[in-house]
Amino acid sequence: MYDANGTVSKATDDLLALADDVVRHTQAVAKYLRVNNYAQPTFAPDSISRSETPEYVKLHSSLKQSLDNLQYLVEGPKRHFRALYCQGYELAAIQVALDFNFFTIVLAEGQISLEELAKEAGVDIDRSSRIVRLLATEFIFREPTPGYVAHNLSQYLLHVDEEIRSTLHYTSSPTIDEMLQAASSTADNVRESPHSYDSALTPFVTRHGLPIFEYYAKDSQRSIRFAKAMAGWSKLNLNINALKDAFPWGNLKGTVVDVGGSSGKDSITLAQQFPALDFIVQDSADMHAAGQKLLTDDIRGRVSFMQHSFFDPQPVGDAAAFILGTLERSFERGFEHGLRQIDLIMLVGFGGKLRTEVEFGALLKQADKRFEFAALTPRVL
Ligand SMILES: C[S@@+](CC[C@H](N)C(=O)[O-])C[C@H]1O[C@@H](n2cnc3c(N)ncnc32)[C@H](O)[C@@H]1O
């Protein structure tokens, strides 16, 4: 199977050796949690949080790599494709559950009969039950007694966190037809322009007829959901400690400009931590409407929103720093799957790509030679 450099490693090309690796890495994870007084994960519905320290992320990544290799070796390519091929149908089930509010109808406590769920959702019991039962195999719902549905860990998270629910919804819902539909037009888009691509002709444009942010500019409701989805996306991906630690924010004084900062989640988090700094979040008015709701009293006076397009000259001339929010870090083998997914999201939605540190530095210099590259924050872990 594959080692840290992505090459085939003889040492682990053996079922029992891989199983040993899994045990060894699991022991390391459990020990780290114990020594640092973190709770051990359980299947209890509210066992949601996991440590976000760089040490934990590294241990988790090693374990995951061994688990993935072991699973692949056990199932082989036929079963692997069988599972991959069916993922679209699982997303379809999630779409129905999101559109018909299953995640809010099934409460965080107790259980509800499938009949009642179907009635409240306004969907027949036959299809409601089938959707729930497929999602129960994905740790989303449970059927503790026949005919009754209760939350599982993932449903609990979706029930209590509207931002994460929005992230899932904008990615997968057919009624707000966005990213999943755009992704399904990727091959058509490549056919339209097989040898080059740019931000004007993305799979999103192929599918929806106009670029993503023009699409949002025409629809306030979807735009606000997108802002919430960005906040949820940060929660799913961002190692907030890494963002805080990646740059000596404490040494700065003055104003930090968060360019294309959406609802300002990054700025809000940093403002809570670094009281000497003010933040200006630049984005569209709809993103700001969503951001205003996230402000807490302790930082209200230090985080402001400015409607500004990054294609126009930067009006804040004396900023202490600029945050260019969609930075991703260069690949590390353990994170590669998640990063490669982001790379495709960038292609589908924006005609963009994931850049390594070197590529990003070159891009900044191309924009203006006076830019100094300060730090690349690990955003996807
Ligand atoms: C992918 S989101 C990233 C949000 C946030 N920076 C983060 O990293 O989570 C890109 C953001 O850029 C904003 N945006 C797109 N075109 C823009 C423009 N011309 N000027 C300013 N912001 C823009 C979008 O509204 C959106 O909020």
From TrEMBL:
Q: Name one Pfam family in it.
A: Methyltransf_2
Keyword Methyltransferase part of the UniProt annotation: yes
Q: Which residues form a coiled coil?
A: none
| Record has Methyltransferase as a keyword | yes
Domain O-methyltransferase C-terminal positions: 190-320
Q: Which UniProt keywords apply?
A: Methyltransferase, S-adenosyl-L-methionine, Transferase
Q: Which domain of life does the protein's organism represent?
A: Eukaryota
Q: Which GO MF terms are attached to this record?
A: O-methyltransferase activity
Which biological process annotations from GO are given for this protein? methylation
Q: Tell me where the transmembrane regions lie.
A: none
Stated name of the protein: S-adenosyl-L-methionine-dependent methyltransferase
- The protein's organism comes out as Lepidopterella palustris CBS 459.81
